[in-house]
Amino acid sequence: MKKFLHFSQHDRLDCGPACLKMISRFYGQDYSYTFLKKMCRMGEGGTTLSGLQTAADAIGLQAFSTRLTMEILERERPVPLMAHWHGRHYVVVYNIKGGRIFVADPAKETNVVYTKSEFEKGWICLNELGTEYGIVTLFSPTPEFYASQRSTADHRR
Fold this sequence. Notes:
By secondary structure, the protein is of the alpha+beta class. It contains 6 helices and 7 strands. The protein has helices at 15-26, 33-39, 49-58, 70-76, 116-123, 143-151; strands at 61-68, 81-85, 89-97, 100-104, 112-115, 125-126, 132-141. A hairpin with a 2-residue loop joins strand 3 and strand 4.
């Protein structure tokens, strides 16, 4: 498996921009951490899914947040994706294979591999009907994402 590039968050509230940096780098663009943080509309509590989607749109990544069950996540494997972790943090899931989930957590120094049950403990929530699900944001680069290299060179690195 190709090594997935890991970026650490700069402070305790910067997990969203760090994850977006990892995802944009995966697709071939390298935006500065400062630029992505600004685009995420950071508040006192960090950023929201809406802020992350706004930032993704600004750089040409189509973002879609949804709820998934573990079964669907394992079957479809729409990686890389951003997972809402413990209801207050964001991580990037970059591979799912053999009952293991490969995660780039910007709060840790390196990438982490979880068993299915370990991952579920950090990701799974219950809805009002008792259904288990996790929140994810899926990304897809648009033609603008690749064209933006020329127009936003000052926002690199």
